[in-house]
Design goal:
This protein is of the alpha/beta class. Helix content is 37%, strand content 25%. It contains 9 helices and 13 strands. The chain has a 6-stranded mixed β-sheet, with helices on both faces. The chain has a 3-stranded antiparallel β-sheet with strand order 2-1-4, with no helix packed on it. The longest helix has 18 residues.
């Protein structure tokens, strides 16, 4: 994003927003209610248009694109909405396959294979024939991530994906996001108000330890392997951007209150 402005009914929501998300990096966006966090996601995926500024996605400036051109850009992006937003009338398999039928030329056998592989990635293969109403909250979020993952997007957008979940289930969702970042090299923008989620992703990476792939906490002084940066919004403006150690040391009173 380069100098992006957005208002609704003459009320400014985003003011001069500029930041970069590099390949394989996670950007965690923090801020109070109404600070513009979700609006940033809507602009990236083209659901909203910026009033001013440029929005670049994988080398394309999309802020003036029409719907046809945006559909091509969206093939590179997976979006996980608040509460999962699954289609209630479709099974888990049909929810995940929906994007493939809409955006690809795969035949039924290839679609089924892709769906099973993707559900396996989020450890939900046993729920393939279930309806959303039969799933727990955490399973619905994992199904939503699987739906967003089909087509191997380069970019993932998460809008409060752990809201309303218990700590153990939220941890599972966080591990999936880390897994995508560290194993698949997916870039992501993660909107949240849950500090535990934010600092989990900033302090852990998926790597081999004693020959086993596991989630490893970074130790102080260790070579930094985590590709996560924070961005803090206040009243539509960026007041901080940096790594977790820097935000913890910030002397800004708003940030200190937010983290307390």
């Amino acid at each position: 994003m380069k100098h992006v402005y957005k208002s609704y009914d003459d009320t400014p929501v985003l003011k001069d927003i500029s930041f970069v998300v590099r390949r394989g990096e996670s950007k965690i966006i923090l801020g109070g209610s109404g600070s513009g966090k979700s609006t940033i996601l809507k602009l990236i995926i083209g659901l909203e248009k910026a009033d001013e500024g440029e929005i670049w996605v994988d080398g394309e400036e999309i802020s003036t694109y029409n719907e046809r051109k945006l559909m091509e850009v969206r093939k590179k992006i997976g979006m996980v909405f608040q509460e999962g937003a699954l289609f209630d009338s479709l099974s888990v398999a049909e929810n995940v396959a929906y994007r493939l039928y809409e955006q690809s030329d795969l035949d039924d056998e290839e679609v089924e294979s892709t769906v099973r592989k993707t559900l396996g990635f989020v450890e939900l293969e046993d729920a393939i024939e279930k309806m959303p109403s039969e799933l727990s909250g955490g399973m619905r979020r994992r199904a939503a991530i699987a739906r967003a993952l089909v087509g191997n997007p380069k970019i993932m957008l998460y809008d409060e994906p752990t809201a309303g979940l218990d700590p153990l289930t939220a941890r599972t969702i966080n591990e999936l996001v880390i897994k995508l970042r560290d194993l698949e090299g997916v870039s992501s923008v993660f909107v949240t108000h849950r500090l535990k989620d934010a600092f989990t992703m900033a302090n852990e990476f998926l790597g081999h330890q004693n020959g086993v792939l596991r989630y490893i906490k970074e130790e102080e002084g260790q070579l930094c392997l985590v590709k996560t940066r924070f961005l803090m919004l206040r009243e539509g403006q960026i007041i901080f951007e940096g790594v977790d150690e820097e935000i913890r040391r910030s002397q800004d009173e708003y940030i200190r209150r937010f983290l307390s």
